[in-house]
Amino acid sequence: MPVTGSCHCGAVSYTLKGDAPDTAMTCNCSICRRKGYLLHFAPLEALELSCDADAVTVYQFNKHNIEHTFCKTCGCAPYGKGTGPDGKKMAAINLRCADDIDLDALAIHKFDGASL
Ligand SMILES: [Zn+2]
User: Fold this and answer.
1) 67-94: per-residue pLDDT in tens?
2) How many Å lie between the centroid of ligand 1 and the Cα of residue 55?
3) Which CATH number do you get for residue 12?
4) Does the keyword Cell wall biogenesis/degradation apply (predicted)?
């Protein structure tokens, strides 16, 4: 079943094609530790957004590899965009904003982003 999700106010929503993940990644880098992301990565073409382009703001820092996207109205960050190690465009889905996913059932993989 595809994964659907949204920000809190509903201005930003998405459908991610493919099966719902049973794992997620947490990261200890400067932004992930503040945001509390539970991340799932997928090819960017699997992500279908339904929101106005001006509903979101993008925050970037350091090497500007990742577009940290969040809703201008409620501040939630349902997804981001970036480039994988192989150069492919990737979507980073914040499973905390996903519908119908049991977050406590996810197998969590910890990523040491702080050491990069
Ligand atoms: Zn919102």
Assistant:
1) 999 999 999 999 999 998 899 999 999 9
2) 8
3) 2.170.150.70
4) no
